[in-house]
Amino acid sequence: MAPASLTSLTNPFPPASPSARCRRRPEAVRPAGRRRSSPVKAACGLVSRRRAVSEMAILGAAAASCCIDLSMPVRAAMLEPDVIRYRKLDSGVKLEDVVDGEGPEAHEGDVVQFNYVCRRANGYFVHSTVDQFSGESKPVTLPLDGKEMIRGLKDVIIGMKAGGKRRALIPPQVGYTDESLQPIPEEFGPRRSLLSHAKEPLVFEVQLLKVL
């Protein structure tokens, strides 16, 4: 979403209509050359200037809270965000159990079927096996070994039970170190998008469907 601009913001505190004291009154005809400022008029002008300054300050604060620093996603991509209630594995993977499954537990060497959503560390979507519009899914079936599956994802799935869900931050050194490693989209566009971010941490949300 594009950042809000100052011109698109409306003032949440519109200026009030002038009070009865500040309304212009018809003045009596004075001789030429004599001009006198009214104390009430001067006071109203001071209040008006103070109100304008106050409203500009409020508007500036609102704009600052709505605007997005475009440099933040770049910095966020270089940092590893903390995952709430996470566990850090020896491989450097940080994971969180979102849903505990009730089926058989996955062990190294098992063949598993699962769905996943892959995002960059700053939250930008990369790829998913579940279509976000139709809900149709194309689960992945892979053996839990280091020959076909990226090591980080293997470490995430080991210990999961069928029906369970985990969210994990996978560092690049146990991610797509080789373009032949799975899971990877078959379509050219999503495949290129995923590999273009292979050298940065990736967030995977995994749902284990079956242990075959």
Automatic annotation (TrEMBL):
<dbReference type="InterPro" id="IPR001179">
    <property type="entry name" value="PPIase_FKBP_dom"/>
</dbReference>
<keyword id="KW-0697">Rotamase</keyword>
<keyword id="KW-0413">Isomerase</keyword>
<dbReference type="InterPro" id="IPR046357">
    <property type="entry name" value="PPIase_dom_sf"/>
</dbReference>
<feature type="compositionally biased region" description="Polar residues">
    <location>
        <begin position="1"/>
        <end position="11"/>
    </location>
</feature>
<dbReference type="Pfam" id="PF00254">
    <property type="entry name" value="FKBP_C"/>
</dbReference>
<dbReference type="GO" id="GO:0003755">
    <property type="term" value="F:peptidyl-prolyl cis-trans isomerase activity"/>
</dbReference>
<feature type="domain" description="PPIase FKBP-type">
    <location>
        <begin position="109"/>
        <end position="212"/>
    </location>
</feature>
<protein>
    <recommendedName>
        <fullName>peptidylprolyl isomerase</fullName>
        <ecNumber>5.2.1.8</ecNumber>
    </recommendedName>
</protein>
<feature type="region of interest" description="Disordered">
    <location>
        <begin position="1"/>
        <end position="35"/>
    </location>
</feature>
